[in-house]
Write a structure and sequence with these properties.
The complex is a heterodimer. Chain A is built from twelve helices and no strands. By secondary structure, chain A is mostly helical. Chain A has a domain of 143 residues: MetI-like fold. Classes of the chains: A mainly alpha, B mainly alpha.
Chain lengths: 255, 284
Amino acid sequence: MRALSWAYLALAYAFVFLPVVVLVVFSFQDGRLPVPPLRGFTLDWYAKVLADRKLMAALVNSLLVAALSSAVALVLGFLAAHALARVRLPGSALLRGVLIAPMTVSYLIIALGLLSLFNQIGIRPSLLAAGIGHVVINLPLCFAITYAAMGDHQKNAERAARDLGAPEWKVLALVSAPMLAAPLAAAFFLSVTFSWDEFIIAFLLTRFDVTLPVEIWSMLRSGLSPATNAVGSLVFLVSVTLVILLEILVFRRSK
Amino acid sequence: MTLAARDRRLGWGLLAPALIWTAAFFILPFLAMVALSFASMDGRTVVHGFDPGNYVRIFTDWTMLKALINSLEITLVVTVVSVVLAWPLAAIIAFRVPARWQRLALLLAVLPFWTSYVVRSYSWLLVLGQNGVVNKALLGLGVVAEPLQIVATRSATVIGFVHFFVMLLTLTIYANLIQLSPNYARAAQDLGANRWQVFAHVILPLTLPGVVTGAFLTFVLCIGDYITPQILGGNAELTLPQLIMLQLGRSGNFPLASALSVVLMAVVTLAYFAASRWLRLDRV
């Protein structure tokens, strides 16, 4: 039973890592196709990718959209969570439901809805349009994470601050936010990784300036190439670094 | 003004930005889409109105209906296979791996989850292709004489999906398992249950909320995904999202694309009601 467990674990890891290993290994392929046999080791594809203006522009766009849309989603989500956790409002269960609702809807539908709305009111496809969409998908996440993290301990500290005469914005900025630093950071990082990786909204709502997943998508249309492997490996490196940072900074400290 | 009234005004003030954003960029677009699904096309121009023709077409045109059926079949297979594969993985990490290594084991098991979604599908293309690693290995071992055609079939789509959702489900099921008190199993054993009975009648039912939550997320994300079937399955058979994108791209038929999206949304809503008894979305 025990041996079987470890065998299953090993097989599962092999399955999970197989595509990533193949991706990374063949990004060093000294040849035109990223498939076996491995012909030799080269860093040419990385050099080529890093010198690619369009790709680098898309990378910057992605970072920009991810950072800004996550910041907006975090602020909106935090304020809403604070309101619903602290003040008794009529219909608060319904309000929570409305705020969470975008989580249960396919990104494709959100994208299509925004596309038809933007078409009708004359907003052209752009990074801004995609960013608006990314706030829509990340707001429920930021709201849910911060809402779940608000406890009685913070409630008392906030009440004390209020009793001592602090205006509400000061309570929020100097008491609530610092006490919720870990969940706020977790919500922000998660939003960044979701936005950074999001394809369909960005694909439908951008045109000339695009984000990285959209640019990678257009690379795929010209067939298999170790250059795509190199981009993919770099993206993997960035995401994994983010996840490990999150793990170390947020979860280690919160324990 | 009383204190309660002041509090309430403050609450609405803090809530307003998020509510306005959700109303303007989620609810309004959705209503616009529903309205558009009842419009029709005259050549390449959209004629607004109340014409149920798009919906009639979806349920009478075999291409459309087949896409819906394909999507449902693929999603159901993916959900079941992913749960069956992920449950033991989560259980092994929760019960066999020493406590201090569990977080690392879990982090590793889901690490590729954080890589780019588009790139992940592309990687499976490399693995499963005619000249890919799997075919080269099978040929080399003499298991097959000819390379298997996996890419551009439903199998490739299912494998790509299962890979992603095994990681997702491992997370939700693990979260559920780790909260279970070992006392339940002990009590059952004391009362004479054997290992199988403990598993089937105690542990498994207790993980149902985690399983259902994960399975529901899998269902929603899988049935709405365009990338994986497009990259791995190709155009041999279409899924609903592929059909929607085709309507947008090739023919610019926004009304039909909207109607298809409403149908997709309805399917997800049905799944939600089917699962809602056990669903704990707030505990993901």
